[in-house]
Amino acid sequence: MINFVINNIPVIAQKGESILQVARREGIYIPTMCYLAKTTPNASCRMCSVEAKGVDGFVLSCNTPPIEGLEVTTDSDALYKERQNIMKLYNVNHPLQCGVCDKSGECELQNKTLEFSVAEQSFAAKEQKRKKKQWGVLSYDPYLCILCEKCTAVCNEVVGAEALYIKPGGYKSAIDNDYAQCIQCGECIAVCPVGAMASSDFKYNSNAWELKKVPSACAHCSSACSLNYEVKHVGVGAHESEKIIYRVTNEHDHDSLCGAGRFGFDFENRVTAKDEKAFSNVLKAFEYAKTIRFSSMITNEEAYILQKLKEKHGYRLINDEARAYQKFIQAYSLACGNSLYSANLDLISKSDYAVTLGCSISSDNPMVRFALAQAVKRNKAYVAMMHPIEDESIRNIVSQHFKHEVGSEEGLLAMLCECFVNVEGKKEHQDFFDSLDGGYISGESSIGEEEFELLAGKKNRKKAPVLILGADLYAHPRAENIAKMAGVLDRYSDFSVLIIPSDTNTLGVSLICELDEEALSPVIAYNAFGDTVLSALGEGDLDMPALNQQEGTFTSIDKKVVPLNAALPYQGYELSDISNKLGVKCVNVIDFTSKLPHEKGYKAIAFDDLPNYYLNSGIQVRGYLLDAKEVKEEISLEEISDIKEFNGTVIYSCNPNMQFNLFTDKAEIIVDKALLKGSKQFAQAAKIKGGENVEFMLDGKLLSRKFQIDNKLKGMIAYNANFDLGQRSSLYRYQQIQLERVQ
Amino acid sequence: MSKVYFSTWNGELINNVGKPEEEWEESAYNLPAQYDSHRESKAFIGWDGVSLFNADVDVIRLAMEYAAQYQEYSEACGRCAPGRWGGRILYDQLDKIARGEGNIADLDHLREIGKSMQLTSKCEIGKTVPNPIIDLMNHFEDEFLDCINNQKPSKHYNESVGYIAKITAPCTDACPAHVDIPAYIEGVRDLKLEDSLKATRQTMPLAHVCGRVCPHPCEDACRRTNLDAPIAIMELKRIGSDYETDHGFGFFHPMKKAKSIGKKVAVIGAGPAGLTTAYYLAADGVEVDVYEELPVLGGEVAVGVPEYRMPIDKYNQDIECVRDMGVNFITNSKINADDMRRFETEYDATMVATGTRISKKIRCDNERPEIEGYWSAIEMLDQINLWEKYGIGKRVDLTGKTLVCVGGGFTSMDVVRCAIRANAKKVYMIYRRDEKTIIGNTTYDEYHEAVEEGVEFLFHSAVDKMIDEGDVLKSLLVDKYELVPDPDGGRPQLLKIEGESYMIETDYLIPAVSQDADLSLLPPEWSIEMTSWATIKTNGKDYMTSRKGIFASGDCEYGPMTIVNAVGQAKRAASVMTRYLQTGEISLSDDEIMEDHLRKLRVYDKKEKVSGWLPGVPRAKSAVLSVDERKYNNKEVNFGFSQEEAISEAERCMRCYYIAMIAT
Q: Which long-range contacts (CB under 8 A, 24 or more apart) does A176-183 make?
């Protein structure tokens, strides 16, 4: 702790804090143009210079840590003059086209030009020829660029894509994009202080000041990131309720979004009137229905309604994907003694040693990828990825890829336990560890014992190890034992464990609903398959509001209950209308927010009392954290079962990085197609060519796909997208298939 | 002393304007009045002022061209608002005046922008570019006003004049390999570790090695010292190479390998100098065969520097990086004079980089190599390292033995610390001078780590006589000395203290005072010129020996010196050799000529007062293994910086880039 003074106010800095960070935390204003709180300082704008007593010249506050007793002044005539001069320089040749610039009204250059009273362009320089660029969702205008380097910093440090970089050349300098590396997340657009890095879609669409921000949670994966839907009424003459989401923004100084979150916003179900006939038909169907099948694209409150309907009317609740996760978490809890897993995204970004097993880092959950990238960049974290498929696109994030045979995950986790479980844990589960046959597992998994030694060696002196488990495991034939081992590792080692919820609100559903294994007909489906379909996609027997049209909460990967607000109106029937008729009463669905099961860690906090804001220091205050409950029972680990061989044509269910489900598919900006993608090697072995159409049976259904050769892929396993298939299947993500070429 | 017409260099004001040439006052600095053997300089302009060598210099154009260089050379820069736009405005306004289109207000703009750049630029390049420009505007105001008032071009505006510029920094200048240090530190700071490593590898292929065991002369020239303490320059170097190695990336070469130029070079010796020559020659498209006497690659750094200080798997990464550039290595191949004669026809040029691998005698009585227990440092370290690192030969076990090393430099530190690890009962280091000097010769950490591990240092001592029984070493007679200050301020003299000599019983005496070069491979009839130190003579600039096509670099040329010195020589030699292979001429590039001029002038000024930075921000220190954890094994002692330490250390760097320019 360092005591010092800013503008005569005594303040305290923590180790590693800069003068600017302390000032911001304490609410003391220092102007900046290039500072981005979530990255290391770029130090390019020089606006944050301050005076320090006894020091000649100015000191840069963004990257200078204070020293004991320092006296800082953040404003003076001399500072004002230099800051004004910097603004004059920023305005050299800057096009005066604010009227047609998207950034107008929220532009840092505009704001600071005003703040420092720069009334005219007092200097000019011979202009360079600069080329405007479009890279998919991003459009770059170098004439507007002030080279603050926020975009390159965020791309490098937060996203880990390392696509954007500075093409140096003094006054000619510009930003360039190594496009093959770009994941189209749009973080660069969010952080750009001027109009240089713009959304290709939003460009020339609306004035920023006409848009109303509706804070909510992203509906596409379990990270449930904080975002604002920005909406506007469509125009004169239209009904009051006719609004459109123009774009998504977020608190970009502190938080991030992926491309799906930022660009996949127009998935609303436009319904302008109540369809009474459809409603009564559906109510009739409920009279006979025995089962409700639903997906995890659902709020906690809706899940609660379904559970209450089950309790009241005896419906079976079917959600295979959430059920697999639920069973996994339950087995895990019994082994580790805690109802919830121990890690969260913040812990991952602060970790210095991470092992991932059973997940595709680059696509399953973008925020896990971002957090790992940050851990690598900022903490020199060692990241071991255990996965059967090599992934060139995250080469800079993964320190070591342990390429294993499909199906051997159980043995691998056992070996991790062997490496890292402490003496007490080994004693507790002595039979299990005695029975462990390292030689057999190494042989069958293709990961040698010396590789495990290397892995264990890399953990020396590491202080914050994490284990990240993903969806490959939940539907694994040996899921239960895998979960138990993960629990044992959590309990008897210094690892924190993250079990990535496979879909948006999988964690919430798994906590709130008692799920059944087999469906009985007739089935009512909510965003799923069934005899009577309630759909937010607008294709069913009764329309339902999409997740950008609803209030409610999600239970996120961070084990937090986070609020959603309705960005767009919805005039049709909602689930609560049905439940009211069926005896589960509420005025609004959010009446149930405070009633979510307390025994599972939910709290009696009303929806309207859920906070949603950021502190000056960047800390997100949003919703609340679930209480983790102690779990008493003990378990015994089972012996590792024999590892089944996967031969022939094997596919892996995995989506392109912007696609998650039918809702992202509906979004206009997200254009990735559902394809079967494989390496050249795969194509040769399967005797197919790129561009050909193929058919195969998957989960009992015939699927038709276009095959594409992806030069970044290696090996004999192809990626099969599943975002277009409706509800996620509970099948193991690797499947042997028979490919048929179709003409 | 330099003859100048006008100079403001380093705060000096020499103004001979209007004086006859024979009355000119001289500058106290080594200014580059003569550019090279056939060109005189007209003017020298840089971060610290401007010097004119004759009265005819067009000062307005000089200022404009200097501002233009800032645009050309701003690869390193253009990354802050004052520098990027301010630099452009300086140039545009000066060009406007020089064209004859300026007005009085332009002068005010120049001063205003110049001041803002001086105060707020990110790096010294932006802060210092206005300095000489403003000097010229102040001292030659008439010429500026003449152009403005009469709207006429400056006097030589339309003539062709050579302007040769070079970007440097105090640390880069002081580094024998001239590594672009601010760039690799910036790479760490920006968390662009690939860029960091590439910046290092532009002139230094041994990033792992010189990120660990370099004596870092750069840190003695770090401007941050003027403020508080120097940047931990060396340790920041390994961040990039550790990143590359830890992630198992392919090698990040800073350049693309050029197409073959159809020439072949033999390099003798695979130590730092040999590896460096080979790397840059191969990058230039030359076919390179490296011959190594030992069964392993790496030279003294491999078999001399112990594992705990320089883990071989890391050094092997550096070596593999060289191989990856397309270098061919031939081990177990001691080259003799016949080979050399053959090479002259088989290859287009030869580089001798054989180092100094014969331990010098300590010059005491009865110093006979045949006495059992007399063991040269080179041979001892060879045996230890070949076993510890490669499993070749047999293990050195000193259990129950006493060992005395005579030395005071890095090699002797390696000897005593290796002896501790070989389980010696007692280890002494005998050194003629004091603790302070030994720290100066090595490093503070090296010395203290040795003390912690149990080495007993006997200062002010020298072995007088070896005492043996039947050619087996039994004890040593050691004399005590005192340091007597030199009344003339020179190095203190050592005087023996009579009556204080004492005996030490010992099993081993390791001479580690210095080494000689084994140059028996040079055919005698070539009569290659030697230095008085019995090393190969070159002019220290192009590294060609007295025989055409035969080059020498590293310790066999300089005498026992540092790794980074060998790298610097070899890098330069590779560049000279490439041109020689293509043209048959020995020449230096403009960049190299400027490099030598600046080295002579010296870029670092230890008296300069630094402003615009907060003093007292502590230098980061990396974690090391505790004594108990490291004493009896070869684990790397220094863990290197954590990322947090590395970033905060990198943020202390003031990016002291400067531009110097000569008009010819």
A: A176/A133, A177/A133, A177/A135, A177/A138, A177/A140, A179/A135, A179/A136, A181/A393, A182/A135, A182/A136, A182/A138, A183/A159, A183/A258, A183/A259, A183/A362, A183/A393, A183/A657
Distance from CA of B85 to the nearest CA of A (A): 6
End-to-end CA distance of chain A: 71
Instruction: Tell me what pLDDT residue B76 has.
Output: 56
Please state which architecture CATH assigns to domain B360-515.
3-Layer(bba) Sandwich (3.50)
B490 confidence band (pLDDT: 50, 70, 90)? confident
Query: Which among A65, A82, A170 is the nearest to B120, CB-wise?
Result: A82
Cis peptide bond upstream of A95, omega within 30: no
Separation of alpha carbons A253 and B73, rounded Å: 33
Q: What is the ipTM of this complex?
A: 0.91
A128, β-bridge pairs? none
What is the phi-psi region of residue A27: left when phi exceeds 0, alpha when psi lies from -120 to 50, beta otherwise? left
- What is the pLDDT confidence band of residue A128, given thresholds at 50, 70 and 90? confident
Kindly identify which residue of chain A lies nearest to residue B125, measuring between CA atoms: A170
SS3 of residue A275 by DSSP: coil
| Contacts (Cβ under 8 Å, ≥6 apart) of A736 | A646, A647, A648, A649, A650
Q: Which CATH number fits domain A2-75: 3.10.20.740, 3.90.1150.30, 3.40.50.300, 3.40.190.10?
A: 3.10.20.740
pTM of this structure: 0.93
CATH H-level superfamily of A323-499: Dimethylsulfoxide Reductase, domain 2 (3.40.228.10)
How far is the first Cα of chain B from the last one, in angstroms, to the nearest whole number? 20
Structure tokens at A421: 């479980």
**B264-358+517-586 matches B360-515 in fold:** yes
- Homologous superfamily of the B171-253+634-652 domain (CATH): Alpha-helical ferredoxin (1.10.1060.10)
Lowest model confidence (mean pLDDT) among A199-203, A604-608, B564-568: A199-203
Cα B25 from Cα B2, distance rounded (Å): 9
Contacts of A99 (CB under 8 A, 6+ apart): none
Nearest to B119 among A40, A57, A162 (CB): A57
Interface probe for B, chosen from A89, A385, A391 (most Cβ of B below 10 Å), is: A89
Q: Per-residue pLDDT averaged across B465-476, rounded? A: 95
CB pairs A-B closer than 8 Å: 161
Pick from A82, A125, A173: CB nearest B92 = A125
Cβ–Cβ gap B191/A378 under 8 Å: yes
Fold adopted by A649-742: Barwin-like endoglucanases (2.40.40)
Predicted confidence band of residue B624 (pLDDT cuts 50, 70, 90) = confident
Q: Is the pLDDT of residue B77 over 80?
A: no
User: Could you tell me if B201 and B177 are in contact, meaning their C-beta atoms sit under 8 angstroms apart?
Assistant: no
Q: Is A51 helix (H, G, I), strand (E, B) or coil?
A: strand
Q: What is the 3-state secondary structure (H, E, C) of A513-555?
A: CCCCCCCCCCEEEECCCCCEEEECCCCCCEECCCCCCCCEEEE
B161: left (phi over 0), alpha (psi -120 to 50) or beta: beta
CATH number of A98-199: 3.30.70.20
Res B537: pLDDT: 97
Whether residue A147 and residue B74 make contact (CB cut-off 8 A), yes or no, is no
Would you kindly state where each structural domain of chain A is located, as residue ranges? 2-75, 98-199, 323-499, 649-742
Q: Smallest Cα–Cα separation from B660: which of B32, B8, B27?
A: B32
Could you please state the CATH topology (level 3) that the domain comprising B2-161 is classified under.
de novo design (two linked rop proteins) (1.20.1440)
Residues in contact with B548: Cβ distance below 8 Å, sequence separation at least 6, in sequence order = none
CB atoms inside a 10 Å sphere around CB A351: 28
In B51-103, which ranges are continuous DSSP H helix? 59-72, 81-99
